[in-house]
Amino acid sequence: MKRAYETCVVYDGTLSDDVVSKEQQQVENFLKENAKLENINSWGKRRLAYEIKKRKSGQYILFEYEAEGDAPTKIEKLFKLNQNVLRYITVRRNPKALAADVVLDPRRDNLERESRGDENEKPARQPRAEKPAVVEEPAADEQQATEKGEDE
């Protein structure tokens, strides 16, 4: 039974574009032989949140494909043996998300903002509502004690 998968790979950011394209081509060829390759989405060079193998940047590439159960483990074995790969992750895609045709693109939000012309705008901050002052009424015991004090 074929299932839909996504594999995101982070290649070393110090590699040249030629080397990264050769690496991508190797994965692409493997997926064409062992799976049905649907889409390749290159996110480009990005700064890493933390250093991985003493590297501060990486080239991100997302592969979307349909494959039998053993193909993802085979491709992960290739990544494990490859010194140019900093990190990789493979997840099974949700069929409901596929039906909704949701596109995963980290630049999508920026492009939408730019097309609207509000790339520097932030959502307006709502002022805090002031709480009404609460006047405490004396408790019944205190009120009786006060009344007794007034009577005497």
C-alpha-based Rg, rounded: 29 Å
**So how many helices?**
5
The ordered string of helix (H) and strand (E) elements is EHEEHEHHH
Number of strands: 4
The CATH H-level homologous superfamily of the domain at 3-99: Ribosomal protein S6/Translation elongation factor EF1B
**Structural class by sheet pairing and helices:** alpha+beta
- Percent in helix: 25-40%
Strand content: 25-35%
Distance between the termini: 93 Å
* Mean pLDDT rating: 79
Looking at CATH, which topology of the domain at 3-99 would you report? Alpha-Beta Plaits
Low-confidence segments:
none
Q: Main β-sheet, in a few words?
A: 4 strands, antiparallel
CATH hierarchy: architecture of the domain at 3-99: 2-Layer Sandwich
The CATH C-level class name of the domain at 3-99: Alpha Beta
Question: Numbering strands along the chain, what is their spatial order in the largest sheet?
Answer: 2-3-1-4
Short description:
This protein has five helices and four strands. With 152 residues, it is α+β, with helices and mostly antiparallel strands.
